[in-house]
Every structure is written in structure tokens, then in C-alpha cells.
Amino acid sequence: MARAGAGGGGDRMKEDVKRMLAALGLNPERRACEQLADLLERLLPLWGAPSLADAYRQTGARFGVRAVQVERNVRALILGLSDSPGGRAALRGLLPWHTGEEPPGNRAFLLALAARLRIDRACGSGARSMPGSPAS
Questions:
Q1: CA-to-CA distance for 6 and 86, rounded, in angstroms?
Q2: What is the pTM of this model?
Q3: Residue 128 has pLDDT above 60, yes or no
Q4: C-beta separation of 32 from 21 below 8 A
Q5: Cβ contacts of 23 within 8 Å, gap of 6 or more
Q6: Rounded distance, CA 88 to CA 124, Å?
């Protein structure tokens, strides 16, 4: 299956994902963020996207690690966000329906990021703003 950024829009996709991660307060150059960006590119298509388990496996293969390590890295990013006030605000902006003290799960986080990226791209904002994020 072709990845969501294949073809002419690949570089733009990568830049949109990097901007979104930076808007969340994450460093897009970190390896875990590169893995997260790869996952998002795989999950972005509404039709034909792999299952989450397959996306973890494909990303792991690309980075030379096991799928479980990719999953742990995503979890560590979520936990890191939930440990800071700015990160918690960004998570609330991304997942306003998620209430409570516990951070969101990987699935909810990834699917919400993919949905936000789809919306921003459809509106032409290129993932420049996220409600509640430190950059908004």
C-alpha cells in the first residue's frame, strides 16, 4: 500500500505533520516524533489506511525496531505532554471529549491527530493552529 504522502504532496505532508507536532509542544526532530509522523502519514487516508497494529509494524520495520517499541514511544510522548501544563492544554484542545486525570490512550491520540491533520489540510491551514496548544 502506498503511504499517504506518496507522490507530489509528500514533502508538504511531512511539513504539515512537523508543524502539528511543534504546535503540540513536541520536538519533531526527536526519533519518537519521527516515528509518530510516520504513523500519522500511514493513518491519514480515510480509505485504505492500515489497522493501527499494521501501522505500528510498518513504522517499526521502517525504523528497524519492533512494533511494540513504536507503541511505547508514542505512549511516552503522550505521557510527556500530560506532565506539563502546556501539554495538558494541547491534549485538551486535541481531544476535548477526553476528561479526567489519565492521559488519552495511544489510539485516541493518533486518530485525533490524523483527524485534525485532515481537517487542517482541507481548510488550507496546514496544521498551523491547534486549540489549546502552546503555539495558538
A1: 33
A2: 0.80
A3: no
A4: no
A5: 90, 127, 128, 129, 130, 133, 134, 135, 136
A6: 26
